[in-house]
Amino acid sequence: MNLKQIAKEIVDKMEFKKDKRVLAILLQGSAVYGGIDKYSDVDLGVLVKKQIPKKERIKKIFKFADKVKNTGLKFGNRDIFFYKGVEINILYIDNIKRKFNNFTLYYSNVLFDPKKIIKKPQKLNKEKIRDIFHVFNFLYDNFDERLEKFATRKEWFEFNYYFISTFCYKMLEAIYILNNVYFFNLNHAFRDIKKMKIKPQNFEKKLEEILNYPCKKWKKKIELTRRLGKEVKKLIENKYGKFEIYYKK
Q: Of 215, 187, 192, whose CA–CA distance to 204 is shortest?
């Protein structure tokens, strides 16, 4: 499966290079940083001067796509469809600073950039690595406040589930970075983490327990998540030290 070739075909079929609204195109995901399997997709970031109307995009997509899954109905300016049996994800961005951080740019291939707008970092320095931990710390420090008082309210079920899932994702991300891996494929996360040295004891088992624990028993689920978050936070501080959080309560 040559995802890079498929990406180039999509760029041609969507006529992005002829479109004056398109400033640059980035290829992201496993096609760039590896770990390709039968479930891998093609992730394209298209930087635009102004958004391309959905109807215009759909008209082109239906000419060559195997199946259209989503065309911006739920996820804003994003198209999701299948081509040659491969899922294609195209995100249209009108503000590169808001959508792309240095990690994203570092692990991207520039497919089109005639005006040299994309500034790819040559390396990731410690300050940029530390930046990504601020979101983790923000979630950790707000954990009790955000979850505990809503744990028994049925109307907050979806929020609690989303918050815990997001926090687990950030724990995974933190473990990767602690082991000097700066981009990861969620499909391969548990397989990859088994090989990593810097992590809490029995990390994979504890994370699976949190994710599989019955949602009806919220207090226990929250306690398990808080405990594991504390272990991850300690590892972060051991390696990078304590630092102020950008986000204030």
A: 192
Phi and psi angles of residue 55, each rounded to the nearest 5 degrees, phi first: -60, -40
Tokens 């692990």 belong to residue? 107
Per-residue pLDDT of the chain (249 residues; tens, 9 = 90+): 689 999 999 999 999 999 999 999 999 877 887 666 677 889 999 999 988 998 899 899 999 998 787 654 444 588 989 999 999 999 898 876 555 666 677 778 999 999 998 887 777 666 556 666 766 776 777 666 555 555 555 555 566 677 788 888 888 888 888 887 766 666 677 778 888 999 999 999 999 888 887 766 777 888 888 899 999 989 988 887 765 443 333
Indicate the domain borders of the chain: 3-112, 126-240
One-letter amino acid at 11 equals V
Closest CA to 67 of 75, 49, 55, 79: 79
Q: Kind of pairing, strands 86-93 and 42-48?
A: parallel
Contact 230, 136 (CB under 8 A): no
Domain 3-112: homologous superfamily in CATH: Beta Polymerase, domain 2 (3.30.460.10)
